[in-house]
Write a structure and sequence with these properties.
There is one protein chain. With about 240 residues, the chain is α+β, with helices and mostly antiparallel strands. The chain is about 30% helix and about 25% strand. It is built from seven helices and 14 strands. Strand 5 and strand 6 form a beta hairpin. Helix 1 runs antiparallel to helix 2 (about 40-50). The relative contact order is 0.15.
């Protein structure tokens, strides 16, 4: 199935790049003032169509079609969790730091995930008990903490709470700015040590990269030290978390 998921992600990337390379972004604002473009919707259609053609069928939650009643989805044991274009602000800025995210969730845990950055042609694939791969090469988290921590942070969503948390570490650190779920992927491939997210995110923002990080030997936990889990409540908002 992972081969098929990678192809679906690549197809979504093609749809995104057709718009990225044009001047027809057609940016709208959603209810929470986050941007929405034609590319988000085009990638959503490609992914949903592709998932529905797989031999094994599971329900689908996408950022662009998340109006599913909690009383229904709370009964789901397995489902797809999708962000067709994660990092829309980076897409609009044309800096290439945006991704296609597809995750399979089982009982609140992301058990496999594909994160594809079409501009970078970077395909991250992670599956529980099978490891994580970047364009076919196995990757894993850094095992030895360096003297100076490499802290990956959001390029478009800095917060004072994050700054305060970093100062409280009491260790030297350097910032590695990055957009979208690529922040978590940098930790997975050992190019960053910690990604603290003390700001709002939604479950579709993190799930695929979470699977990638878990399979690479890392983890995402809440500030209380509990594993980040999915579909445990009516809201799709994540608590603050630490990826490492």
């Amino acid at each position: 199935m992972l081969q098929e998921l990678q192809q679906i992600a690549r197809d979504a990337g093609v749809a995104i790049m057709e718009i990225y390379n044009s001047d027809e972004f057609d940016v709208q604002l959603k209810g929470d003032d986050s941007p929405l473009t034609k590319a988000d919707l085009a990638a959503h259609r490609v992914i949903v169509d592709g998932l529905r053609k797989l031999n094994v069928q599971y329900p689908i939650i996408s950022e662009e079609s998340a109006d599913i009643d909690w009383e229904l989805r709370r009964l789901w044991h397995r489902y797809w969790l999708v962000d067709p274009l994660d990092g829309t602000k980076e897409f609009i800025k044309r800096n290439g730091e945006f991704t296609v995210n597809i995750a399979l969730i089982e009982k609140g845990e992301p058990i496999c995930g594909v994160v594809y950055a079409p501009v970078l042609d970077a395909m991250y694939v992670g599956e529980r008990d099978k490891g994580t791969f970047l364009n076919g090469e196995q990757i894993q988290v850094e095992q030895n903490a360096p003297e100076t921590l490499r802290i990956v942070g959001s390029r478009s969503h800095a917060s004072q709470e994050t700054t305060d948390w970093l100062e409280a570490l009491g260790k030297p650190y350097q910032m590695v700015p990055m957009g979208s779920s690529l922040k978590i992927c940098l930790v997975a491939e050992g190019k960053a040590d910690i990604y603290p997210r003390l700001g709002p995110t939604s479950e579709w923002d993190t799930a695929a990269a979470h699977a990638v990080l878990n399979a690479a030997g890392g983890s995402i936990t809440t500030l209380d030290g509990e594993p980040l889990r999915y579909n445990q409540k009516e809201s799709f908002l994540n608590p603050y978390f630490i990826a490492q």
